[in-house]
Amino acid sequence: MVVRAFLLLASMLLVTPALAGVSATVDRSVVEQNESFVLEIVIEGNIGSEPDVSALDEDFVVGQSSQLSNTNIVNGQLSRSMTWAYTLMARRSGTLTIPAIRVGNDQSEPITIDVRKPRNAPPGEADVFVTAEVDNNSTWVQAQVLYTIKVYRAVATRQMSYRRPVFSGAEVLVEAASEEKVYDALLNGRVYNVIEQNFALFPQESGEISISPTRFEARVIANGRITGRKVFESEPQTITVLPIPVAPAAYADAAWLPARNLELSESWSREPDRLTAGEPISRDIVVSALGQLETQLPILDIAAPDGINLYPDQPELSRRLEDGGIRGIRRDQYAMIAVGDGDVALPAVELPWFDIDSEEWRVARLPERTLSIIGGAPVTPAPQSEPAVEPAAAVPAMPLSQAVSSPFWQQVALGLGVLWVLTVLTWWWSSRPRAAPKAPAPLPAYKLQARSLKAARKAALDGDAAALRSALFEWARLEWPDAAPRSLGALAGRLEAPLADQLRAVSRSSYGPDAPHWDGQAIARSLRSISVRSPGADPTAADTLPPLMPSR
Hints:
Blueprint: H1 2-14, E1 21-26, E2 30-32, E3 36-44, E4 60-74, E5 77-90, E6 94-98, E7 102-103, E8 106-107, E9 111-116, E10 128-134, E11 138-140, E12 145-153, E13 156-163, E14 167-169, E15 172-176, E16 181-187, E17 190-203, E18 207-211, E19 215-222, E20 225-233, E21 237-242, E22 258-259, E23 261-268, E24 274-276, E25 280-290, E26 308-312, E27 316-322, E28 325-338, E29 342-346, E30 349-355, E31 360-366, E32 369-374, H2 400-405, H3 407-430, H4 445-462, H5 465-479, H6 488-492, H7 499-508, H8 520-526, E33 529-531
Parallel strand pairs: 2-9, 11-21, 15-33, 22-30, 24-32
Antiparallel strand pairs: 1-3, 3-5, 4-5, 6-9, 7-8, 10-12, 12-17, 13-19, 14-18, 15-17, 16-17, 18-21, 19-20, 23-25, 25-28, 26-28, 27-28, 29-32, 30-31
Helix pairs in contact: 4-5, 4-8
C-alpha cells in the first residue's frame, strides 16, 4: 500500500504542469448603466496568484467576488486553473474598457463594454413588474427584429409561471436569440433581480404584427407572508413589416438578404501562390450574416475559370448567438484541380446585401486572385518491343509515273481526300464547346418553408390530417436538416405552445374512436407564428417559454 502511494506521488511530481496564462470574459458586452454583469478571469497554471483588479474602480463598481479551482490530469499532463468571478456595475454610460488584468507576469486582453443609459423605471414602488420591447417598430420582410422580455423582482416569489405572448397578423417565425440571463438592476435606489430573455422575429410577409402582453404569474412573499397568485403583464407591441425593396440596377438579380452585418471570407488548405497541375487544393468561402438565419443565406455563384476543374462540396450551415441576435453562417468548400500550366485568374466573388441599420444596399467582395500553375512531372511511356514481321514475298515494283497516271489510283486518292476532309469537319463539329443549359436557381430554404407552412394551413382548414403531417414534416426537414423529427410527437417537442399542444392532439386523434378531436382552425392560426423551442429546453413544458428562474 505504501509502495502504491509512493508511486502515485512520484507520478504526480514528474508530470509537467501547463504553461501559465490569463484570460478574461464577460457574460454580457451590452448592458445598461444600472445593470450588473459578471467578469470572469481564468488563470492557468500559476493558481497561487490573485488578480489585481484595482484598475476597475475608475469606471466600475466592484461587487461580490468568488473563486473556483480546477485540476485535470490528461495523458500524464497535469493542468490546474483558477476562475475568479467579479460582479460589476458601470459608473457611467458610454463605451467603457475593462483594462488588462495582471496576474504575476501575465495579463489578460482588454474588453470593451457598451454601457447604455437606463430605459426602464418601475411603475411607482412596484415589487414585481414585466417589460417587453422590440428594437425596431418597423422592418422588412425576412429582416430580424429582437424582442426582449424582462421580469423585475424586488421580493421573493414562489410558484412562478410564464406565458409567452401571442403573435397575430403577418406570418412570423420566432427563434430563441439568447440564453436566459439573470442579473441585478438598481432602479430608484432599489435593487431588483432581473430575468431576461431575447427572441428573434423573422417576418415572412409584409403587413403588421401584433404582439400581445407577456404574462408572469407568481405568489409574492412580503413581510414574511405569502400572497395569493398574482398576474403581471407587459405592454403590447406592434411591428410594421415593409415589402422587399427593389435591388439596384447593377444587381438586379440579387437575392434579398437583409442583415445588420455581413462578412465574406475565404481560406485555403495551403498557400495557393504556386500550384502544380494535377494536385488538388481546397478553398473555403464563408458567409457570416448578423440578423439572418443560416438557412436563408444564398448560394454563391462561383464560376470555374479555364484551366481549373471545380468540385463543390455540401455546404455547412450553423448559427451563433450574439448581442445583436442570431448570426447565420454558411461555409462552402470547393476542391480545385489545375489541368494546365501558366497563370489562371480566379474572378472576384461578390454578394449584395441590404443593411437594415443604414437602410442601404451594400456589396461584400472577395477580390480577384491570380494562381500560378506549373506543369506536373512528364510521364515517360515504358519501352515496348515490336512484334517480328516476316518478310513478304517480293512484288515487282510499278514505275512511279505509271502509278500516278493510272485513272484507278487517281479516283482512290480523290476518295481518300474527301474522307479526310469529312473526318476533320466531323471532329471540329463534335469538339466545339457547347454552353450547358442553365439550370434554374434553387429556391432558398425560407421560401420552401413558407410554401410548406401554407400547405399545412390549408390542410388544417380542410381537416386533412395526412396532408398536414406531410407538409409539417417537409418544413421540419428544412428547419433541422441533420436531425429532422419523424413523428408529430417529436415535432411537438421542439415547438412552443399552443402549436405543440395542438400537434399532440392531432397525433392522439389517430389512436382510436375515443381519441380527442383536433381543431383545424386553431392549428391554422398557430401556424402563422411558429416558435422553435431553444436547445436544452424542457419539451414537456406546455404553453411556456424555457424556465425563467434558475434552480436554487
